[in-house]
Amino acid sequence: MTSKQALRAAIKSAGALFLCAACATQPEKGPPLAEAVPAPAEKPAEPAPAPTPLPPHAPTAEERQRAEQLANESVGRLQAGDSAAGRSLLEQALALDPKNELARLMMRQVTADPVAELGTVNFAYTIERDETLAKLAQRFLGDRFLFYILARYNDIAQPNQIHVGQVIRIPGTAPSAKTPPPPRVPTPAPTGPPESARPAAAAAPADDLIAKRLADGREEERKGNFDGALAAYEDVLHRDPTNAEAKQRRDAVRTRLIDRYYADGMTAFAHQDLDKAIAAWDRVLQLDPNHQNAKLKRQQALDLRDKLKRFETKG
Question: Where are the domains of the chain?
Answer without folding.
Answer: 60-111, 113-175, 205-314
